[in-house]
């Protein structure tokens, strides 16, 4: 089975899609077969949507867009609230069945993996870790349900120590050990905290920093090479992250 990595943000707009697209570019340059997957997406469609950006950066065909993102809602709120807000507000049971929703996602992902003989699947979450998801569920249920391992995506600047360590601790409470974290720089301005944030997080948590994606413009372009990643990133991934747990 394809190695499955679940991109978990420390917040909304932490740069998950940008990191996913950059990883897809890196994999293509190395001849590694990687498929993207966005199990649940809410918000408007179009060329700037997450699923459209993932498709454009990947080896998938335009006709595979529905499988890339099988569960979609047009309203720009958390997928679970877009599906049915009632269970999250104490108003009764959800109208959707989480196992049925997860089943649709598993089926779509398995088809993509089989069709493209994927070595790695990059699964992109929605927002941060504690995000309402369809069927009255929460994002950790989907990490477990898709049998993926979390890779945290965090902003590189001031505040990221707190946000990243809280995400790591919350994952560990749920017995979801993160394989690492990746920093993004979404703004061009300098931030003196960037020089030490990764080291502090590594020392406190034991979780390694696996990449530091520089500012790529607005809208972000794809990096020309993968020198923003640790040198053995893909060998770790293809080796089931051996030795990192």
UniProtKB/TrEMBL annotation:
Alphabetical list of HAMAP family matching this protein: BioD
Keyword Amino-acid biosynthesis listed: no
UniProt binding sites for ATP: 13-18, 50, 124-127, 214-216
Oligomeric form and interacting partners: Homodimer.
Gene source species: Enhygromyxa salina
Single GO molecular function: magnesium ion binding
Database matches in Pfam families: AAA_26
EC number: 6.3.3.3
Key words, A-Z: ATP-binding, Biotin biosynthesis, Cytoplasm, Ligase, Magnesium, Metal-binding, Nucleotide-binding
Gene3D superfamilies in the cross-refs: P-loop containing nucleotide triphosphate hydrolases (3.40.50.300)
Gene: bioD1
Location (main, coarse): cytoplasm
Positions of the catalytic residues: 38
GO biological processes: biotin biosynthetic process
Binding site for substrate: 42
Function comment: Catalyzes a mechanistically unusual reaction, the ATP-dependent insertion of CO2 between the N7 and N8 nitrogen atoms of 7,8-diaminopelargonic acid (DAPA, also called 7,8-diammoniononanoate) to form a ureido ring.
Binding site residues for Mg(2+): 17, 50, 124
UniProt name for this protein: ATP-dependent dethiobiotin synthetase BioD
Cofactor(s) listed: Mg(2+)
Family the UniProt entry places it in: Belongs to the dethiobiotin synthetase family.
Superkingdom of this protein's organism: Bacteria
Pathway of action: Cofactor biosynthesis; biotin biosynthesis; biotin from 7,8-diaminononanoate: step 1/2
Catalysed reactions listed for this entry: (7R,8S)-7,8-diammoniononanoate + CO2 + ATP = (4R,5S)-dethiobiotin + ADP + phosphate + 3 H(+)
InterPro entries, sorted: DTB_synth_BioD, P-loop_NTPase
């Amino acid at each position: 089975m394809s190695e499955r990595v679940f991109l978990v943000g420390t917040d909304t707009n932490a740069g998950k899609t940008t990191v996913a697209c950059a990883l897809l570019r890196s994999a293509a340059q190395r001849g590694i077969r990687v498929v993207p997957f966005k199990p649940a997406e809410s918000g408007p469609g179009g060329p700037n949507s997450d699923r459209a950006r993932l498709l454009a950066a990947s080896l998938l065909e335009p006709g595979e867009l529905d499988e890339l993102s099988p569960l979609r809602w047009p309203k720009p709120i958390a997928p679970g609230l877009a599906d049915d807000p009632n269970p999250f507000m104490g108003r009764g049971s959800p109208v959707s069945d989480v196992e049925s929703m997860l089943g649709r996602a598993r089926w779509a992902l398995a088809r993509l993996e089989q069709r493209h003989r994927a070595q790695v699947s990059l699964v992109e979450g929605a927002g941060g870790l504690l995000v309402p998801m369809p069927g009255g569920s929460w994002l950790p249920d989907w990490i477990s349900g898709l049998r993926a391992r979390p890779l945290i995506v965090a902003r590189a600047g001031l505040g990221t120590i707190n946000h990243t360590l809280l995400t790591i601790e919350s994952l560990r409470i749920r017995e979801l050990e993160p394989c690492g974290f990746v920093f993004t720089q979404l703004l061009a301005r300098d931030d003196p905290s960037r020089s030490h944030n990764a080291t502090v997080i590594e020392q406190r948590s034991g979780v390694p920093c696996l990449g530091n994606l520089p500012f790529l413009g607005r809208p972000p372009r794809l990096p020309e090479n993968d020198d923003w990643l640790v040198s053995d990133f893909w060998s770790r991934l293809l080796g089931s992250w051996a030795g990192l747990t």
